[in-house]
Amino acid sequence: MNISVELHQTDLLTVNGIIKGEIDAFTAPTLREKLAEIDLKENLQVIIDLTDVSYMDSTGLGVFVGFYKSINASNSHMELIGLSSRLKRLFDITGLGEIMDIQASSGEVKIDETV
Amino acid sequence: MKPFDYVEIRVPAKPQYVSVARLTISGLANRVGFTYDEIEDLKIAASEAITNAVQHAYSEEEDGEVVIGCALYEEKMEIMVADHGKSFNFEETKAQVGPYNESEEISFLREGGLGLYLIETLMDEVKVHQQEGVTVFMTKHVGIEQVDGNVKHISS
């Protein structure tokens, strides 16, 4: 199991990110490093697609909290999109769902294969 | 006959093995008969405890091991995670762990902030034991939240 993080600067003030895979103790540092590469500046919009994130725990939440702090400090904006109901729930039960700009995926609940 | 099947997993105290243990627990939970959502809850809760153990063991010595004991009952699963790398007598250790209160020095568990909170939220019962390392004991019952959803219709 691994993680892939793609970042595309689509215009001067927009960065689109796509994260795929599992975010846990092993992969979270990779995600943190990748997000730190974004050159944050005023009014920058960072939109991160989590549609293909099949697993996440507090290590992942920690990365997003850290990134969210940097975002706020630089007056940029972060939006998390495509969250499965599982991921949405994780943000909600920790109270982060009310603080961050989060969009659940519009489609049906994605059922991952479970062993 | 013992009232439960016992499976013990030992992994090196390294972050890359957290997902291995998680997958194993997912398989065991499936065996017990948990729903998809319950299994996802178990995966997160167990990962939180294992991650804590890995990070704790990491700061102490490099070649530690994390021991994860899983007791599979008819309608519940107990998971015990210890960061000291020694095998335990499941029942004996289980008897030693007790409820903790907020003021106890389990601050390391809270270091990451949300780990213990998630375990408490996602599991039915959580106990922590601190003696030569830390042991987290947690229980989840099948269908405790969605009883109605588990009612089977005989005729259709």
From TrEMBL, chain A:
Alphabetically ordered keywords of this record: Phosphoprotein
Coiled-coil positions: none
SUPFAM superfamilies in the cross-refs: SpoIIaa-like
Superkingdom, taxonomy of origin: Bacteria
Domain annotation STAS: ranges: 19-115
Matches recorded under InterPro entries: Anti-sigma_ant (IPR003658), STAS_dom (IPR002645), STAS_dom_sf (IPR036513)
UniProt GO molecular function: anti-sigma factor antagonist activity
PANTHER family for this protein: ANTI-SIGMA FACTOR ANTAGONIST TM_1081-RELATED-RELATED, ANTI-SIGMA-B FACTOR ANTAGONIST
Job description of the protein: Positive regulator of sigma-B activity. Non-phosphorylated RsbV binds to RsbW, preventing its association with sigma-B. When phosphorylated, releases RsbW, which is then free to complex with and inactivate sigma-B.
Family as reported in the entry's similarity comment: Belongs to the anti-sigma-factor antagonist family.
Name under which the protein is recorded: Anti-sigma factor antagonist
Source organism (scientific name): Psychrobacillus lasiicapitis
From TrEMBL, chain B:
CDD domains, alphabetized: HATPase_RsbW-like
Catalytic activity, as annotated: L-threonyl-[protein] + ATP = O-phospho-L-threonyl-[protein] + ADP + H(+); L-seryl-[protein] + ATP = O-phospho-L-seryl-[protein] + ADP + H(+)
Annotated ranges, domain Histidine kinase/HSP90-like ATPase: 11-140
Molecular function as annotated in GO: ATP binding; protein serine kinase activity; protein serine/threonine kinase activity; sigma factor antagonist activity
PANTHER family per the UniProt record, alphabetical: ANTI-SIGMA-F FACTOR RSBW-RELATED, SERINE-PROTEIN KINASE RSBW
Class of enzymatic activity (EC top level): transferase
Keywords for this protein: ATP-binding, Kinase, Nucleotide-binding, Serine/threonine-protein kinase, Transferase
Entry keyword Kinase: yes
Gene, per the UniProt record: rsbW
Organism: Psychrobacillus lasiicapitis
A Pfam family hit: HATPase_c_2
EC number(s) stated in the UniProt entry for this protein: 2.7.11.1
Family: Belongs to the anti-sigma-factor family.
Keyword ATP-binding (UniProt): yes
Coiled coil ranges: none
Record function comment: Negative regulator of sigma-B activity. Phosphorylates and inactivates its specific antagonist protein, RsbV. Upon phosphorylation of RsbV, RsbW is released and binds to sigma-B, thereby blocking its ability to form an RNA polymerase holoenzyme (E-sigma-B).
Name of the protein in question: Serine-protein kinase RsbW
SUPFAM superfamilies named among the record's database cross-references: ATPase domain of HSP90 chaperone/DNA topoisomerase II/histidine kinase
